[in-house]
Amino acid sequence: MEAGVESGHGKNSGGSDPEALPEARSQGRMVLRKFLRHKLAMGSVVVLALIILGSIILPLFYPHSYADASFSSYVEPSAEHPLGTTQVGKDMMAQVLRGTQFSLLIAITVAMLTTIIGVVLGALAGYLRGFTDSAISRLTDLFLIVPSIAAAAIMVRVLSGSWYVVALVLAMFAWMPIARITRAEAMSLSQREFIEAARASGAGTGRVVFKHLVPNMVGTITVNATLAVAQAVLAEAALSFIGLGVQIPDTSLGLVISENYEQMQGRPWLFFGAFTVLVLISLTINFIGDGLRDAFDPRQRKVKA
Amino acid sequence: MNLVVYILRRLAISIPILFVGSFLVFCMVAAAGDPLGELRTQPGVSQESIDQLSHQLGLDMGIVPRYFDWLGGFLTGDWGISIAQGSNMQPVFPKIMSAFEVTIQLILAAEIIALLLGVAVGVLAAVKQYTPIDYIATTMAFIFFSMPIFCVAIVLKMYGIDLNVMINDMGWDSWLGNPFLKTTSPESLSGDGFFDSIIGYIGGLLLPTLSIMFISFAAYSRFQRSSMLETMNMDYVRTAQAKGISQGRVIMRHAFRNALIPVTTLFSVNFVTVVTGAIITERVFAWNGMGSVLVEAVNKNDPNTLMGWIVVIAVAVVVANLIADLVYGILDPRIRVG
Amino acid sequence: MRRSKAISAMAVTAVSALVLTACGGGGGDNSDGSSADVASMAEGKAQEGDVFKLADVPEMDPVTVAIDDKFTAYNNDTADANSSYNNYVLTSVLAGPTLLDGNNKVLTNGDLMESIEVTSEDPYTVEWKIKEGAKWSDGEPWDCSDFYLSWLAHSGKAEGFNVASSTGYELIDQPECKDAQTFTAEFSQPYIDYKGLFAAGAILPAHVLEKGTGIDDITSIKPDSPKVSDVAEFWAGEWKGFDAETMPGSGPYKIKSFDRNSGRVVLDKNPEWIGAKGGPKEVTVRTIPDTQAMATALENGEIDVAASTQPDATAATTMQNLESQGVTYGSAPQLTYEHLDLNFKRIFADEAARKAFFAVVPRQQIVDKLLKGVQPDAEVLQSIVFFQGEDGYQDVYSDKAGQGAEAAEKILQEGGWKKGSDGIYAKNGERFSIEISHNENARRKQTVEIIQSAAAKAGIEVKDDQDANFLAGRVDKGDYDVALFGWSSEPFKTTQAALYSSDGGQNWQGLESKEVDKAYEQAVASTKEDEARKHYQEADKALANEYATLPLFATPSMWGFRGIDRVYMQSYNGALWNVGEWEAAE
Question: Where are the transmembrane segments (chain B) (predicted)?
């Protein structure tokens, strides 16, 4: 990974920003080309896109509201109710669609937050070193030792079980790995000539970090942000399972599954709808992350060849 | 020697962090609401006994003195009392410790199997890259990796019952016991003899251990595979291969040892995840470990129990990190020497 | 159920006190939803009239019984320990002068008691006569001093006992031990629920306390004696958890061992028990908070009896499907009524709003969807004061609730409400948007979902307010529009006045009605049961006319068992109330 980044910037040392862009773009094209060739990852992109689009578009045409409880209990799957109805008489398909929306919303929010927090802190620590580094590292350690499940449970209970509270809490306890990885990479990058040159030309910390360091870590950041989405989906499901996650009126796939897992044997359709979507989301994202990692990794060429 | 210094330094860092962390968590727990709220709504509970409890919990003090009061007690083994309804002002320390004992059994068993199996499968997949073995291992890892742990646990439980029926049909229950596989925490681990105890222990532990194991196994095998591939591409390994040293020897002597290092890191990073997994698994299998203590404490708003819980886990994380560091030091000669 | 059940929180009991329940619940009725032979198990085998005695049956092998939450304390009557789950264990360990059968009939404990009689109407005096030879499992006599200690602790006249409830005991002015076998009490006013006193674990071993505190004779200690604080300290502090030395049994069983972490309790025979000596050799009581896990454990043969107060249709189906494997399934309403309390201080000050809300709540649908899977003959509860099957039960709600969306809209329009552009009715600028508040409980959440959907059709917006702290600090402050919860009680009605009288301590909804007040006053002061019942019925009607509180159903319990001839889950004391006469099924 580092080798790739280096080759992209070898000629760049001392160069100004406008010059850096075309370089980055050509590197980006190469990564994209490699990614497009990664069949599993591409297939995953298609499936994930279908799930996302489906969860947005289908509810517009779907005849039943998620809130309508006027049907009978436990109607078996039919054209009217593709996944049957729940005990209170709500259409299961409508629950799955809405759960998918919320789960994706939570996961993407978590991924964005963790990436932003992790990258900013990690890059600052790695670049500035010294006191900032130890302060940020201690902060990272602090968050690593506090058991997130307990903290999350308490905060969800105190604040509320809205989706954004759950997302926020999950993000609070998921940024540390990204910060550590970013820090390590920022450390090694800041030894490089082009960073030293930027610093010599009088660029401030903010400029060096965000214009020079971060763009060069795009590979690592993208891969980890992607994987963070998958982890967030599962973490949310885990919280919901012990009853300390998202609460109504909001919902999530985890909540829909944990409300219906007891039906796995008796009325499998109530369980497997939400379950399949959840596993598909996390599986496809993991595959995409893997594909991205390969695409950003220059050594992959050698291995494949 | 350096390793000792290194560990001492890690400890010197960890203790202030534990201190600050416990204070922050203490504030969070204190903000979680009135622990005596439920008691206040009850008919016939006198104001006097509520005041008495309130004083006992230090609720009449400010947050800072209350924290130091708690900390003083905590360090001397008095972790306060649990005030949740029905918990009867039970002291927190023995309650958490016996729950921790249950959970650590599950975690240790699961992690050991997961590590051994994960590393073995990872190495195999790397050595046999792009063969069916690799593909199967990779697919399995990805599936387990993408599955919520409670689903794995529930499925295992379902098949566990079927398996018991099979065992009974075959007549093996005479020596495996009926039921062999337990879906709830085992009645008691003592049996009539040594063999019975072992069988009982295995039957009770098997299903929950397996479900925690699967999730960890997925991560370990993936990690081991990629770090193995990386080391196998390193110059010194290639040199060794070029020198004509046999494939097996190269793998075991050179590549394997170095490839283990990242997995060691994963072990410590993964520890919190495993604890979370154990909590959820315990719930499925109705074990009375840290999971049930946590859920009960959160729902009954029981501050001393919550604090004890969080600090015990935090210390366990620190210890797990130390162990990882130690292993790291043993595996990586650079750290040991310099 | 499901997850929320661990969460279930306090299914709390207090002797003859109404108790707020977070989850559990009950109903007094013998029309349970199980097969006919289960209904017949509600009575003791050797029960005659008002007297219960254990039947003489052969001894059977040890059994394992699972309940929802942990046993924690030998003394269940302190405020901090009080829980139904303690009761479920103690019912076979700590004997009382009376007990309840599966139909909630109050029976005299014929194994230990000669009689319980009202000896004078004025002053109202009751005499308890104990059988000669009744003993604790450590060989000491079970006698009048034990009754006296129980009174001292529960009377509320002395400080430091931290007693869960003193209802009834506080009316006793002159307690006296005439001799070792006779305890008499003079009441300051008539108290017809006297049979509820000293029952369900209220009588603890006075001789142990005497030894522990160095007091020679407990009956010499009055509430104002200086030594009473020692007694209080021992009573409230030393009988927590379990210790074989200080915690003998007085019932057919005694506690043999107790594992605090898992809540597992092992009971074995009380060697000094003077009644019939059959039943299981040992009884292990375990805690399995997840109802489905409990059903699975029964399926897998890990437990012999699954007894849950948390009705869950899926777990019920699992157990019903095990019939071919020899499992018997039972279900019965408990003495808990689930209901909706409307807050008079908010939007529901408007009578039309109350009436319209009553009209949209689809109670039949709620019962059909949420309860029928557990208890096939579950019914909508039509009275707040009485349970189905109780003497005095009358339908006072069916003409006031559930008429549907159209009727509700008509009521609102007549009451001056107008439909807004958003489809929601409004009056004087206030939208008809309400929150139904409840604790974390899957069934309550489902109840709200059903009401939500039905109310939306009538232009009423209902929001679900699920708050784990709702019963712990909000409900008593009247912080709700509609409160959804259950009250649980023994079949004694004295304490109900506190809930609905204008100045009642637990009247959190702000109800003020002269008719209700008057009826309760007259009922409490009655000296005859018939007379009291008549006034309670009046109170019931007056309450309904206020549209103040809407009863939904009596929450059913459910249980399953294998290898035992008969098990019936008593609404208040659990499955073990007659464990001493369980026999191995053939």
Answer: 12-33, 102-127, 139-161, 198-220, 259-286, 306-331
